[in-house]
Amino acid sequence: MNEHPTNGLDDVVHQRVRLGILAVTKEARQVEFTFLRSTLGLTAGNLSQHLAVLEKAGLVTIDKGYEGKRARTWIQLTKAGKKALSEEIAALKALIQQLEGTGGGVGPGPAAAPAPG
Question: Phi-psi region for residue 66, left (φ > 0), alpha (ψ -120 to 50) or beta?
């Protein structure tokens, strides 16, 4: 029996904000903290918490420095982060294909039949 596509989703990556962080960051060589915060509509504290999870998992690097006299924080995807995002997208595509009936994967069996009602 084939594994259901949702089993391929990564809990660290799949969370909405973290998926957004990875997606926005992939679009640029590096992204600045305030840009991410405003793009994703987050508070600084909320973004910091999610970045800490991604950094601990080795999916992003966080570099602090200065631009002129202003402190800045830049975020970059690591090689592992790029791979994790790519795998998440592949798992989501497989799930969509299955739900749209184009995947040829596991289909509903007797256990998936609706309950009489």
Answer: beta
